[in-house]
Design a protein that fits this description.
Number of strands of chain A: 49
Structural class of chain B: mainly beta
Shape of chain A: elongated
Helix content of chain B: under 10%
Number of helices of chain B: 1
Helix content of chain A: 10-25%
Radius of gyration of chain A: 37 Å
Strand content of chain A: 25-35%
Oligomer: heterotrimer
Shape of chain B: globular
Chains: A alpha+beta, B mainly beta, C alpha+beta
Radius of gyration of chain B: 16 Å
Distance between the termini of chain A: 94 Å
Strand order of the largest sheet of chain A: 39-40-41-42-38-32-43
Strand content of chain B: 25-35%
Number of helices of chain A: 24
Structural class of chain A: alpha+beta
Largest interface: A-C, 58 and 54 residues
Number of strands of chain B: 6
Chain lengths: 963, 91, 175
């Protein structure tokens, strides 16, 4: 490799005093601070950077910027790094992608011999049949898949996220964007300017001395008036009400960050993107766009070639010719405006040696620079409902003059809007900035007036000004797309003009269809370089115009985004009870239950069960949903929510209740205690607590706003502890003040309020989920740890020990209590769970009443309760066999065929009964006691089981808990 | 992300709220028929035009409210920031 | 002899953290009383508390009255004598149910911006503003409550999320 780096030149952005060593495919090389990876390698004479995606053709620099489709590289463990954009860092390990065994000798390039074998739709057509070969196809194709290598062992990267509320966001920091930002800030707006490149200035950065000076002055002016400038950042999407996603990329400056901005006005000023020309050999290394050549020469002092043909249709191309001459390149200037046309670039593999013109002229050159026209990246405007409209005279798309209902808050300026001198572009930018600031002021005033907590807005609403900007003109430009020879249209996806023509001939003749059939515009350049050429090729193939074909829909993201950036920082809220640290100290095995972290057990759940049945245990049930309900109409609310009756519940008593949704499906259950005449404490399931609060508020606010009742979620206000076991009363007698615990004074299903371990304001109710004598204590949460420790200390001689969720689940299954969401599902209506006795159809109203009436009394044409499955207790014949939950239950019909008649919903080994026990949902025909069922195990074996007479496997009469 | 006009808080990100669904009357449980009740449970008009819908200000004021939204254009009858359009009759 | 009950805060370690331009402290022991508007028309409770939805005002006895939801007031302070004396008024003690953290300092808005979508600029969220908001995906009540002229926010969440929330805020500040 020979060096292409020129001696120091004015305007270069590299710091020659700071060399940076890195490796390229294992070789030690170096560049300078300020180089991109590609400019550093180009300075070393490197011309081939990758192999193309399908045909594995050698590829070189095209644009020398973010959009370059040919310079995606692997950097260390990071794949698909944009080498034309990423700044060089010392120690980078850079390798080529998509080449095996090496960039020079790529075995996969053999696919090119097949040629047509990889034409558009190849995968669709070839790998459809036979289906059983799919796994093989997948293996083979995976080896040919493009892109870099992901190292599963690489350290997770940091991703950040923040919110912003700027008045004006300017997308693009070229002359018009900078002028707009400065003018808006001068008018009093808070302005965020987002620049794709590493520095503001746009194309002025690689322009003449005067242009560079103007760019620097515009950037200085913006900074001096307080514009916040994000560089190496992109507005990747725009949604309703100017909700913007801005990605600050992961460069030397820090971690990748997603900024979620709510802008009042968005100014779209991305400039123009140069469009490649489609001709034979247009993807050879050495064929470069004018902007790429100018960037290499002027920003990084890299001479892109020795002998160049510059084919130019515009001033940028002419400037490239002048820049190359200044860089010492021998230049042959071919003027497209004079009708001269390039039809082919020829040479040995991986290089340009000759340029062929339409008139047959052959020009010796190692570099072809094309300046064929521009693409207006209108994506952000399209996302706001503004359609792109093609102007043949200017040979590019422009935003439609009027857009959707929100178009007034999305303005455009700069090259995307039109052409003009630099003064005219800056003038248009300034006018746009002033308009943006004035409109933002109107919206800021409206926001302030409408927001309850905002400071009072001063004065009248500022006028929302009309758009009185002088529009930019449009330069004439020849329409240059394809000279008749075939070349590559989409360099990212390796789609040729021939592929597009064949696709059109096969019937994929609309732009949206051809895009999906050929994958044109779907690669790493995301249409920025190839969309208009795709449209033009299709127009040519179908005999229509570019206007008639139209463009594909440009959706977010504007530029590719890493998944890490979108995920941002992970926020996974975790809830813990006040007793959490005590559980950890006691050696709990934790289990996640929704957001809660709970003790599953403390070592031996079966021992915990035995201790509760023999002595006394305590369990932390703080996640249990708790709602404080107060007011004269509280009883009406309970009657509406529950299927059962509440009017005659005495103060000091608790009652079990079931809630159904309006479709009769069981929604939640729990006990509710009447603490006073107009005061209840309701408990819900732990998992349903949040949803129940919303459910109740919905009924109160939308159906019964006149009811005098207040519902307050107090789940976290109490540490809830269930004290269970035959010795629970003895334990509590040692700690409770102000409550008579005598079984005659404090009966089963009653509630009392008193002091526990010196903590007053504790609510105690006597219930029995475990089937034992038990008291549930609701203690003000800050005193929870104190009471928990007091229970353990005071009951040491009684054998008190904590038990976890697993022991509780075993014991409730021994008692046959169902769990909503475990033994019921989204189709389980209340009668299925054996709740007919609870449902009171004679109530005036309750949620789900009509459905439950039809379920119990029969619905014309749809049957009655016999249509519903039943929840039954089941015991496998083999007491040692615990069928996994969700196992199917089958029955053989008279036709000899097996069919599913139910499933196991809960199963455990009962240490109390020393046998397996289950709950199951089965069809009513298989629900009678002593019915023999057939369970299909996960091993496929059939095992028999018997339906029990009662849901409770243990103490069906409840003598233990009533004692 | 849409700004939702919460009548209490003011304009809020739609992620702060829950769209409950179209607003309609609940049939009288005493007299309703299966057809009418199931329509109430499961059917939405979902017109490509204006519809009345209930929102729940989940992370804000905790209130349920009814508003009108154009479901094809995804905008509210009274957009929180006005039409923002030059042709709008709003000053 | 039984030990005297002691209040356990939501946090395990020290209830303080700080960084460049911000300080975070646990104030969960502060008494908190939730008061509802009275049922009968006339608004005696509203008249006595006199704070409109969206505002937080310190009254005579140093309790901060936060109107975080329509028809509700959260009274924060060592004394809650400001609880209205209205027959039938519903008031629920939330001292134990809510965690409460204070984020103070000139960088406090930047720390919040990493975890909360509320616009905290002066015009949109001035001192004495209160709203419901998601903070690090936890439903919170956010109060601007400057101390000695210094920018300061109170952040209240359900107690069980408190430890996670404190860690998330500290982490946001550290970055």
């Amino acid at each position: 490799m020979t060096s292409a780096r020129m001696p120091a030149r004015p305007g270069e952005v590299i710091d020659r005093a700071e060399p940076l060593a890195f490796t390229w495919n294992g070789s030690e090389v170096s560049g300078f601070a300020g180089d991109t990876i590609v400019s550093a390698l180009a300075a070393r004479g490197c011309r081939v950077f990758s192999r193309s995606m399908k045909y594995h053709r050698p590829r070189g620099i095209l644009t020398a910027d973010y959009w370059d489709p040919n310079t995606l590289l692997q950097v260390g463990d990071e794949p698909n790094v944009r080498g034309g954009h990423r700044l060089l860092e010392a120690g980078m390990q850079v390798t080529a992608q998509n080449a095996w065994p090496s960039l020079r000798f790529d075995a996969k390039a053999l696919t090119a011999l097949g040629g047509r074998a990889l034409s558009a739709g190849f995968y669709y057509k070839t790998f459809m049949r036979p289906r059983w070969l799919w796994p093989l196809y997948e293996k083979v194709l995976a080896r040919f898949a493009p892109g870099g290598v992901i190292d599963p062992a690489s350290a997770p990267r940091r991703h950040e996220k923040r919110y912003a509320h700027p008045d004006v966001v300017v997308a693009g920091g070229g002359p018009a964007g900078l002028a707009a930002a400065t003018a808006a800030a001068r008018a009093g707006a808070g302005v965020l300017l987002v620049e794709h490149e590493h520095a503001p200035g746009g194309h002025l950065r690689w322009g003449t001395k005067r242009e560079r000076a103007l760019g620097a002055a515009l950037a200085d002016a913006a900074r001096s008036v307080g514009v916040e400038i994000l560089t190496d950042a992109t507005v990747v999407g725009r949604w309703e009400d100017n909700w913007l996603a801005i990605v600050e990329r992961d460069g030397a400056g820090g971690p990748e960050r997603l900024v979620k901005a709510r802008a009042k006005v968005l100014v779209v000023a991305p400039g123009l993107i140069e469009r490649p020309y489609v001709f034979a050999g247009n993807d050879r290394p050495g064929v470069m766009l004018s902007q790429g050549a100018r960037r290499l020469a002027n920003l990084w002092s890299v001479r892109p070639g020795d002998r160049a043909v510059v084919w130019s249709a515009n001033a940028a191309g002419d400037a490239a010719a002048a820049d190359l001459e200044a860089a010492g390149v021998a230049v042959e200037h071919v003027d497209a405006r004079a009708g001269h046309t390039v039809v082919a670039a020829e040479g040995r593999r991986g290089a340009v040696e000759r340029i062929v013109l339409a008139d047959g002229t052959r020009l010796e050159a190692d570099l072809l620079v094309t300046a064929a026209g521009w693409t207006a990246p209108t994506s952000l405007l399209n996302m706001a409902g503004v359609r792109p409209v093609y102007d043949a005279a200017a040979a590019r798309f422009f935003p439609a003059p009027s857009g959707g209902p929100e178009a007034g808050t999305v303005l455009s300026t700069g090259g995307i809007s039109g052409d003009g001198s630099l003064d005219q572009l800056v003038g248009h930018g300034e006018a746009t900035g002033r308009l943006a600031a004035a409109r933002a002021a109107t919206l800021a005033h409206r926001l302030q007036v409408a927001t309850a907590w905002a400071a009072p807005a001063s004065g009248a609403e500022p006028l929302f000004p009309t758009d009185e900007r002088t529009p930019l003109g449009r330069d004439q430009h020849p329409e240059l797309y394809r000279p008749g020879t075939d070349g590559i249209v989409d360099l990212s996806e390796d789609v040729s003009s021939r592929d597009l023509r064949h696709g059109a001939a096969e019937g994929f003749d609309s732009v949206e269809l051809i895009k999906r059939w050929t994958t044109a515009t779907m690669g790493s350049a995301q249409g920025k370089l190839e969309t208009v050429n795709t449209v033009a090729t299709l127009a040519e193939a179908t005999g229509s115009t570019i206007s008639e074909v139209g463009t594909t829909t440009w959706r977010p993201p504007y530029a590719p985004v890493t998944l890490g950036a979108l995920a941002g920082r992970m926020f996974e809220p975790v809830r813990i009870s006040a007793l959490h640290d005590l559980h950890v100290a006691a050696g709990m095995t934790p289990i996640g239950a929704g957001q809660w972290i709970r003790p599953e057990h403390y070592g031996d759940p079966e021992a915990e069960v035995r201790n509760v049945r023999a002595n006394v245990g305590i369990i932390d049930v703080s996640p249990l949903g708790k709602l404080d309900i107060r007011g004269p109409d509280a009883t009406d609310l309970l009657s509406l929510l529950y299927v059962n009756k509440w009017r005659r519940l005495a103060v000091g008593s608790v009652r079990y209740g079931v809630m159904c949704a309006e479709d009769g499906v069981i929604l939640d259950d729990g006990v509710t205690g009447r603490l006073g005449e107009d005061h209840y404490l309701m408990s819900t399931t732990s998992s349903g607590a949040g949803a129940m609060e919303v459910w109740i508020q919905n009924w109160l606010q939308t159906e019964h706003p006149d009811w005098r009742v207040r519902v307050t979620p107090v789940t976290d206000a109490f540490t809830s502890v269930n004290v269970a076991g035959p010795k629970s009363r003895t334990l509590l007698e040692r700690l409770v003040d102000g409550v008579d615990l005598d079984p005659e004074a404090f009966k089963y299903m009653q509630v009392r309020t008193g002091a526990v371990a010196g903590v007053s304001g504790c609510v105690m109710w006597r219930i029995g989920f475990t089937g034992e004598l038990s008291y549930e204590l609701h203690v003000p949460a800050g005193y929870g740890p104190h009471v928990w420790q007091a229970l353990l200390d005071a009951g040491a001689d009684l054998g008190v020990a904590p038990f976890g969720l697993e022991a509780q689940r075993i014991m409730r299954l021994e008692k046959g209590h169902f769990i909503v969401g475990q033994d019921t599902d989204a189709l389980t209506k209340a009668p299925t769970a054996g709740l007919e006795w609870l449902i009171k159809l004679d109530k005036e109203d309750f949620t789900g009443l009509p459905e439950l009436r039809w379920a119990l009394e029969g619905e014309p044409g749809a049957g009655g309760p016999e249509a519903l499955p039943r929840l039954v207790a089941v015991q496998p014949t083999d007491p040692g066999y615990v069928p996994p939950e969700a196992c199917q239950i089958v029955a053989t019909g008279s036709d000899g065929k097996e069919r599913i008649v139910g499933r196991i919903t809960s199963s455990r080994f009962s240490p109390t009964l020393e046998r397996s026990i289950c709950l199951a949902q089965v069809e009513v025909t298989h629900a009678s006691p002593e019915t023999t069922l057939t369970i299909v195990g996960t091993d496929g074996r059939r095992r028999s089981a018997v339906v029990m007479a009662h849901h409770a496997h243990f103490d069906p009469d409840g003598e233990r808990l009533r004692g | 992300m849409l700004l939702v006009p919460c009548p209490h808080c003011g304009p809020r990100n739609s992620a702060d709220l829950t769209l409950v669904g179209e607003t309609g009357p609940r049939p009288d449980p005493a007299t309703t028929t299966p057809g009418e009740w199931r329509a109430y449970l499961y059917e939405e008009e979902n017109p490509a035009g204006w519809t009345r819908e209930t929102w729940y200000c989940r992370l804000g004021c905790g209130r349920f409210f009814v508003t009108e939204r154009h479901r094809a254009e995804n905008r509210f009858r009274n957009p929180p920031l006005g039409a923002g359009d030059e042709s709008s009759d709003r000053p | 002899m039984r030990e005297r009950p002691h209040f356990t805060p939501p946090l395990a370690g020290p209830g303080e953290a700080s960084g460049d331009g911000w300080r975070l402290s646990d104030e969960s022991t502060t008494p908190k009383l939730l008061v509802y508007e009275d049922f009968e028309p006339g608004g005696a409770v509203a008249r006595q508390l006199g704070v409109a939805f969206g505002a937080a005002v310190t009254n005579g006895d140093d309790a901060l009255i936060c109107a975080a939801r329509p028809g509700e007031w959260l009274l924060l302070g060592e004394r809650t004598e400001s609880a209205p004396d209205v027959a039938g008024a519903v008031a629920v003690d939330m001292t134990h149910g809510l965690g409460m953290f204070r984020l103070t300092g000139p960088a406090a808005p930047d720390v919040l911006a990493a975890v909360c979508s509320i616009d905290t600029t002066e015009a949109m969220f001035p001192n004495g503003a209160v709203c419901g908001a998601s903070v690090a995906r936890v439903a919170c009540t956010l109060v601007r409550n400057d101390t000695d002229g210094e920018r300061s926010y109170l952040i209240l969440s359900q107690r069980s999320s408190g430890r996670y929330l404190f860690d998330a805020l500290r982490d946001a500040g550290a970055r």
